Amino acid sequence: MVEENPGNPLFLGNYAQFLYQVSSKRDLQGAEEYYSRAILVDPKDGETLSQYAKLVWELHRDEERASSYFERAVQVSPQDSHVHAAYASFLWETEEDGDECAAPSEIDKIPTQFHQGTLASA
Description:
Blueprint: H1 9-22, H2 28-41, H3 46-60, H4 63-76, H5 81-98, H6 104-107, H7 112-115
Helix pairs in contact: 1-2, 2-3, 3-4, 3-5, 4-5
InterPro entries: HAT, TPR-like_helical_dom_sf
GO biological process, one term: RNA processing
């Protein structure tokens, strides 16, 4: 299907997810390639951006790059609770990896929906 529809972001993203989560061998490099291709075709798919950010963190432990993709995901999908949950999980994990409390500058990175009550009312 992917070879027949190389420009279809849904097929690219689903295949990337298969390689990342479902495949018995977990082909992370292959998943990275297909997530990248899906994002090039549809840069406004928050779910794909979020999944790619998660993969970047797991595969490369590149906090800055993963954070950038998470922030883009939140910007393009501000109402998607899955995107927000993935970003929150990432922030929690990176805070634990640093083994210290978040500095005020890091707290400012959290989307305003979290600390202004928008999501709490949903």
